[in-house]
Amino acid sequence: MSKTAIVLGATGLVGSELLQLLLNTNSFSKIKLFSRSICGITNIKIEEHLIDLFKLDDYKEEFKGDVVFCCVGTTNAKTPNRSLYKSIDYGIPVSAANLAKENKINSYIVISSLGADINSRTFYTKTKGHMEAAILKFNIEKTYILRPSLLGGKRKEWRLGECLGKLLMVIINPFLFGTLKKYRMIHPKTIASCMIFLAEWGFHKKVILSDEIEDITHFI
Question: Tell me: the pLDDT tens digits for 94-152?
């Protein structure tokens, strides 16, 4: 039976790849997008809701489907204000999980980050860790948290530090194997493919590291 996907962050690096894959799969007949800006794609499958994501709770009646894909996130460089940063990286994913629970959506897939840890001394990874812990408390049956490493691909905005990091990773990627494999740079399309696989087939773990995301896509 064809399903309805709910996507948050469809205009981002991973979200845009996920949207394209969803449009090309027969498993989903409707794709509900919740975002602050239009995706720029016209397709009969797409149902866009241009909203203030900080007020997601106001859209409970529209927030109904079979699976939620949360690709929302920011960076320290883009959002230096820590309060706003937490509202995005913690507040939005947790609000989405809360609505999924209330609307009896039994599949919730969210992107976190490698190194996420509530005990981290780094604000970024600590915030991700708290987000993960809060989402797991909802006990949504099919909850999957993806922890990718540095993302490959091209962003709309240019970031010097990230570009230099990617150049370095291209050089050292081949030397990262065994326990270091999880630090390899990963392409956004790989993450998006993994998310769809998890929605359709599930997995035996709730928290999935970057190298495991790569491994899962080998089944597709």
Answer: 999 999 999 999 999 999 999 999 999 999 999 999 999 999 999 999 999 999 998 87
Looking at residue 187, its pLDDT comes to 92
Q: Which runs of E-coded beta strand occur in the chain?
A: 3-8, 28-35, 46-50, 67-70, 107-111, 142-147, 207-209
**Six-digit token string for 154:** 């091209």
Give start and end residues of each alpha helix (H) in 55-144: 82-86, 92-102, 123-136
* Biggest distance spanned by C-alpha atoms of the chain: 49
pLDDT at 12 over 60: yes
Q: 25: domain CATH number?
A: 3.40.50.720
Q: How far apart are CA 52 and CA 36, in angstroms?
A: 6
Quote the CA–CA distance of 76 and 125 in Å, as a whole number.
11
Q: Are 11 and 36 in contact (CB under 8 A)?
A: no
Instruction: Report d(CA 153, CA 166) in Å as an integer.
Output: 9
Task: Supply the range of the domain harboring residue 14.
Answer: 3-217
- Which amino acid is present at 109? I
Nearest to 112 by CA among 206, 23, 37: 206
- Beta-ladder partners of 7: 33, 69
The model's pTM:
0.89
- How many structural domains compose the chain? 1
